[in-house]
Design a protein that fits this description.
Layout: H1 4-19, H2 25-32, H3 38-59, E1 71-72, H4 73-90, H5 94-102, H6 106-136, E2 139-141, H7 145-148, H8 153-183
Antiparallel strand pairs: 1-2
Helix pairs in contact: 1-5, 3-8, 4-6, 5-6
Length: 184
């Protein structure tokens, strides 16, 4: 029974990605062209909702404290670099690849799934050699931002939300100014 809730959440997330057009190649590419920020807004909104949900459920005692895995700074940087390279090669990130593959789109299915399988295979083959070395370098331990800056988590969530809204406003304004200059 413990697999049903994550499956339902995954289907809902995929449905929302699809209905919002977030599985379309041009939506992803246009974020980097600064012409359409729908994907950025979707993901930032998901982060805000996720932060609120996790801390609210924890504060209300609905769930026990969250298990926080150690933060391996070098490992995270290398993982982010590899993910970014894979995203650039595929032209889309992992969630839209899964959703697009579910739609039967070969342009997502072939490079995306092959990339994910290749990455999983390489991870499995190199984990025992790479992980011990990386986990000793810049291991920050299990940390979260509110603890790092010694602030209440609701204050951090509020600040993150305000920063996200200001970012949305500033980027939309910059896009509007840029498109006005192009039309002129």
């Amino acid at each position: 029974m413990s697999i049903i809730a994550p499956l339902l959440i995954g289907f809902l997330f995929g449905f929302l990605l699809h209905k919002g057009g977030m599985t379309r190649y041009h939506k992803i590419v246009n974020v980097f062209r600064f012409t359409d920020l729908a994907v950025l807004k979707f993901m930032m909104s998901a982060l805000v909702v996720g932060m609120i949900g996790i801390y609210l459920l924890t504060d209300l005692g609905v769930v026990a404290s969250m298990p926080i895995t150690p933060t391996y700074i070098v490992g995270n940087l290398l993982g982010g670099l590899l993910f970014g390279i894979g995203m650039a090669v595929a032209g889309v990130c992992a969630a839209p690849i899964a959703a697009g593959s579910g739609e039967g789109r070969l342009d997502y299915l072939i490079p995306g799934v092959l990339g994910m399988l290749t990455g999983a295979l390489l991870f499995g083959l190199t984990y025992n050699q790479v992980y011990p070395a990386l986990s000793r370098i810049a291991n920050a331990g299990p940390i979260v931002l509110p603890e790092v800056i010694d602030a209440n988590h609701w204050l951090v969530i509020g600040l993150f939300t305000v920063i996200a809204l200001l970012l949305f406003y500033a980027l939309e304004r910059a896009i509007r100014i840029r498109s006005d200059k192009i039309r002129a």
